[in-house]
Amino acid sequence: MASRIEPPLALLAEVTHRCPLRCPYCSNPIELDRASHELPEQEWRRVLTQAAALGVLQVHFSGGEPMVRRDLAALIGEASRCGLYSNLITSGTLGGERELQTFAAAGLKHVQLSFQDSTSNGGDRIAGLPRAHEKKIAFAKAVRAVGLPLTLNVVVHRQNVAGLAEMIEMAVALQARRIEIAHVQYYGWALANRGALLPTREQLDAATGLVETTRERLKGVLTIDYVVPDYYAVRPKSCMNGWGRQFLNVTPAGKVVPCHAAQTIADLVVPSVRDGSLADIWYHSEAFNRFRGTGWMPEPCRSCDRREIDWGGCRCQAFLLAGDASRADPVCSLSPDHSIIETARQEAQSLSHAFAYRHYG
Ligand code: SF4
Ligand code: FES
Question: Is 301 annotated as a binding residue?
Answer without folding.
Answer: no
